[in-house]
Design a protein that fits this description.
This protein is of the alpha/beta class and 367 residues long. The chain contains eight helices and 17 strands. It is 19% helix and 29% strand.
């Protein structure tokens, strides 16, 4: 007998539309921008092909089809690519169900996309066996905005950044760093656009010192990232430029590594020293990461930022780190699952689902 489920999230009035602009960085670091507008109740994307052509747009994959009759909602999941094993397929099935019920417009991957050592090339069969053939639900046939994790750098990191993968699966979008900009519009009030959200995707792996130490058992693919000090500073400068220019209602930064965590990896000292000051300076609301194979929400009294870990897309590690500071821990779950985010003008709602698709935690930020 089928089990009746309660609504996944509070049922807000479905009267918002969304506009989106989109920045990526080309090989010499210059910003490329294209604007797409969601029109009326039909949710049609109107883009400027001539603008895209003039800018030489580096777009991988189709745009999210965001309907004017829905709030902005998306799923977040990391540390997943295990060819369906370690409950990856079960998590994928529940993501598909939740995505359909919420009407999610896209998926965010927080990195470690292919285990154990990334992809070997753009032709690696693991891309199909761990991605295309696993996330088959209709609701997941939309753009996947993806960052690299440390395991991805153990293979051919450039393969995941290549448009060749887009030709294999048009959902795929992966860059080292990029930015998404959304505008939420209230269709019940003459189409008033009264809230914005800027999302900054940030490549954290090059910042972790231990990965650069000589090691006979592993080799990281650092092509394009030397000399390291200059590359790291350039990445920080680009993020600072984007954050300082942002006037968004909500600012979200997404990276692979933790800043605050009570998981096995714990806090990332390098990110606390180099990244966190920028997030605090420019009033970032939320930092979302993977790396620790669990689900967490941390909000410390000494920091205005909410930290969400969603790194439980397949293999999870039981137990939490007994040596970490538990200050500000609002929730932690050491099993598989994923995060759903729903946004409207004055709020942002975060809901964790476990491997069975049950809600295990929900939290709402308001402005």
């Amino acid at each position: 007998m089928a089990t009746e489920r309660t609504p996944l999230l509070p049922q807000f009035q479905q009267d918002s539309s969304t506009t989106k602009s989109f920045k990526v960085f080309n090989k010499n670091g210059s910003v490329l921008l294209v604007v797409c507008i969601c029109v009326g109740l039909f949710g049609l994307w109107v883009c400027s092909p001539s603008l895209a052509g003039r800018l030489g747009l580096m777009v991988a994959g189709k745009k999210p089809e965001i309907s004017a009759s829905r709030d902005l909602s998306f799923l977040v999941m990391g540390d997943w690519g295990r060819k369906g094993f370690y409950n990856q397929s079960m998590v994928a099935a529940q993501m598909g169900r939740v995505g359909e019920e919420l009407g999610t417009q896209f998926v965010i991957s927080t990195g470690d996309n292919f285990y154990d050592s990334g992809l070997t090339s753009v032709d690696d069969s693991a891309f199909s066996s761990s991605f295309t053939n696993v996330y088959t639900a209709p609701s997941l046939q939309t753009t996947w905005y993806t960052v690299l994790g440390n395991h991805d750098y153990l293979g051919d990191a450039l393969a995941q950044l290549s448009d060749e993968l887009v030709r294999r699966d048009s959902r795929w979008f992966c860059r080292r760093s990029f930015q998404l900009n959304y505008t939420l519009c209230d269709m019940s009030n003459a189409g008033t656009c009264n809230a914005t959200v800027d999302m900054f995707f940030f490549d954290t792996t090059p910042f972790i010192d231990e990965y650069w130490s000589p090691n006979e058992t592993r080799t990281f693919d650092w092509r394009g990232l030397a000399p390291r000090p200059e590359q790291l500073q350039s990445q920080l400068d680009e993020l600072a430029e984007g954050l300082s220019a942002s006037t968004a209602t909500w600012k979200i930064v997404i990276g692979h590594h933790t800043i605050r965590s009570i998981g096995h990896h714990g806090d990332s000292t390098e990110l606390i020293q180099k990244l966190l000051p920028l997030l605090e300076k420019y009033d970032v609301d939320v930092y979302i990461n993977g790396h620790d194979h669990n689900l967490q929400h941390i909000k410390r009294e000494d920091c205005p930022i909410h930290f969400f870990t969603s790194g439980a897309g397949s293999k999870a590690y039981s137990g939490l780190n007994p040596y970490t500071d538990e200050q500000g821990v609002k929730f932690a779950h050491d099993g598989q699952g994923f995060l759903a985010v729903t946004m409207k003008a004055g709020f942002m709602s975060f809901t964790f689902f476990d491997v069975l698709g049950d809600i295990i935690y929900s939290y709402t930020l308001q402005k």
